[in-house]
Amino acid sequence: MNKSIFYWAVAACIAVCNISCGSDDSDSSNPPSSQLSTPTYAEKAVAYSISNNEVKATSDDGVCLTGLNFTESGKAIIEVTKDGKKKYVTYNVAISGDTYTITDNSGKLIGTVKSSVTRGSKSATINVSITITINGVTYTFTTNSAAADMAFATMTGGDALKNIARTWTINNMKLTLESEDPDFKSLSMTEQSGKLSAFVAEVKKRDTGFSNEDIDQLNKEVKSITLDQTGLLCIEYSDGGSDAATWSWSGGNYSNIALKLKDSEMGNKFIQDNTKIAVEFSGTLCKFTLTTTLDREGKKPFVATLNLVMQPK
Questions:
Q1: Which end of the chain is less crowded, N or C, counting CB atoms within 10 A of the terminal residue's CB?
Q2: Which of 90-94, 149-153, 297-301 has the lowest average pLDDT?
Q3: What is the mean pLDDT of residues 220-237?
Q4: If we measure between CA atoms, which residue out of 12, 13, 3, 8 comes closest to residue 238?
Q5: What pLDDT score was predicted for residue 275?
């Protein structure tokens, strides 16, 4: 899928990730205005990284299960790899003891993963029995006693980290397009949902330098955005698709995050590694702000700002 303007537009909302180790720091110099309620699985969330192509799909030996993130707010983000390329799918998870029960949004059982988790341990043995569907293709993974690396609660951030590490839904979005070029008609538009498609017609009216194919990638609806304390950021779409990247704090006051793209196909002229997103908490809401500049041949630069106001799911 062409990911150009689409990934720029949802960069604030864009896997199993690079883990940076550190202790929890509760003394943030820019603390959120209020402490949100604790997510259901805050003390049970864990990320598993599976290497050596140990867990293969029964229907296709070239597809391997390489990552499982069970997040603080009850999301199961599953990573599969084929020929070095990664794909993701997002489900729901209930955690009880050493069993992770995975279901889809209709309540259909996707399968289970079993593992005894010891906080502080870096390795585990997992038993997997799941059947997942990605881009219309179904894969079944079954294995006993597969070796996996574990990560949980590895980032610093104190209350800011506790607040941001959860699943969010879009309250409203505001897209602003501006340029000093006198021939460019600016745009400022707010949508009271996660429907990026609402911006398509208006963006096409502007001389943005984007192709219609690029702009048509906005024909998506963001269902939810999940961040976890191991550095995973995942977008779940209403059509069942998912995309994932890593995130980390940028600067020392926990008010900005940087994205790290794991898949080179995600990178484009709108979003590159270490794209910065400003984060602001107000009450129970969280606001992401991304501003990007696009140089245009023979014309003055084009500036785009996307504001996302989100609420806990």
A1: N
A2: 297-301
A3: 93
A4: 13
A5: 78
Contact call for residues 305 and 189 (beta carbons, < 8 A): no
DSSP 8-state secondary structure symbol assigned to residue 231: S
Q: Helix (H, G, I), strand (E, B), or coil: what is residue 203?
A: helix
The pTM for the full model equals 0.84
Task: Locate 94 and state its tokens.
Answer: 């209930």
Q: Using an 8 Å Cβ cutoff, are 68 and 78 in contact?
A: yes
pLDDT digits (tens, 9 = 90+) for 44-88: 999 999 988 899 999 877 899 999 999 999 999 999 999 888 888
- Contact yes or no for 80/107 (Cβ under 8 A): no
Alpha helices by DSSP H, the chain: 4-9, 158-164, 200-204, 212-216
| Nearest to 250, CA basis, from 183, 131, 160, 176 | 160
Cβ-based burial of 218 (10 A; exposed 0-12, middle 13-18, buried ≥19): buried
Give the burial string for 75-114 (b: 16+ CB within 10 Å, else e). bbbbbbbeeeebbbbbbbbebeeeebbbeeeeeeebbebe
Helix (H) or strand (E) holding 176: strand 167-179
Confidence category of residue 17, pLDDT binned at 50, 70, 90: very low
Q: Which residues contact 183 (CB under 8 A, 6 or more apart)?
A: 207, 299
The closest alpha carbon to 72, from 234, 193, 307, 222, belongs to: 234
